[in-house]
Design brief:
12 strands, alpha/beta, about 290 residues, TIM Barrel, 11 helices, four-stranded antiparallel β-sheet, 2 domains, about 20% strand, Aldehyde Oxidoreductase, domain 3
Length: about 290
């Protein structure tokens, strides 16, 4: 099996994300608590530990938080993004000016706990269907402003990404079909519009609609809110012609049965919108 490399977050993207978060937290006067209680020359050492089992994601953002607050801070990652960790695992060691460590710690932990939570929750879904060829994929249901990094976390957890936005693929949904005048009309118009590198996906919720899609042709068909029996019928009708994506009512309890029908992808917003944070702590001492 070909190795699926983890994506890398471009440094410019990371800095823009983290800079905005730091400015939000530092407000108009900076960290007045640290400035009031800690001398400017005081050095400190911090250890970042996972308090529960999970998958780590977001280390580049955590590192950027400390570096942007004070370039003299040294951030040493002890694991890589995508690593599965046990409770008590030390994730990173940070050292440098104490004021900077204290000012950056919340932003660093916010990113790391949120993204590691998404990676961990994604892995639960991916592990449940690892015996099949299906892949779990995220959707555009992400927190505004965090889509790129949340989708990165999904990849760290073994999932795949759906569209990043409205501009990178054509996805014809039920409301598009209703306004366009039908499945055939919508697909014909999409084909006339799309460039040769743009895929066309269309959503259906009945086998009759699916047969109309097979007649007209598309790249991908989204089978929405179909139970396992109907999904199996769609797979049989398809005969490998289109990529098939199942969606709707996907949970950890249902994903195994969905995957075993033979669909190629299973999309769910739960891996981004319902993921609990991973509990990560940061303990500091005088350096």
């Amino acid at each position: 099996m070909t190795t699926a490399y983890l994506p890398e977050l471009p440094g410019l993207m990371v800095e823009d994300q983290v800079r905005a978060a730091l400015l939000e937290d530092l407000g108009r006067a900076g960290d007045i608590t640290s400035n009031a209680t800690i001398g400017p020359d005081r050095q400190a050492i911090a250890e970042m530990n996972s308090r529960e089992a999970g998958i780590i994601a977001g280390l580049p953002l955590a590192e950027a938080a400390f570096r942007l607050v004070n370039p003299a801070i040294r951030f040493e990652a002890l694991v890589n993004d995508g690593a599965r960790v046990a409770p008590g695992t030390m994730i990173a060691r940070i050292s440098g000016p104490a004021r900077g460590l204290l000012s950056a710690e919340r932003v660093a932990l916010n990113y790391l706990m949120h993204l590691s939570g998404i990676a961990t929750h994604t892995a639960r879904f991916a592990d449940a269907i690892a015996h099949t060829d299906a892949k779990v994929t995220c959707t555009r249901k992400t927190i505004p402003g965090l889509r790129a990094v949340e989708k990165y976390a999904v990849r760290c957890g073994g999932g795949s990404s759906h569209r990043y936005g409205l501009d990178d693929a054509i996805l014809i949904k039920d409301n598009h079909i209703a306004v366009a005048g039908g499945i055939t009309e919508a697909l014909k118009a999409a084909k006339a519009f799309a460039g040769h590198l743009v895929r066309i996906e269309i959503e259906v919720d009945t086998l009759e609609q699916f047969e109309a899609v097979l007649g007209e042709g598309a790249d991908v068909c989204l089978l929405d809110n179909m139970g396992p029996d109907m999904l199996r019928q769609a797979v049989a009708l398809n005969q490998g012609r289109l990529i098939l994506e199942a969606s709707g009512n996907v949970s950890l309890e249902t994903i195994k049965a969905i995957a075993e029908t033979g669909v190629d992808y299973i999309s769910t917003s739960k891996i981004t919108m319902a993921a609990p944070t991973l509990d990560i702590g940061l303990d500091m001492s005088i350096g």
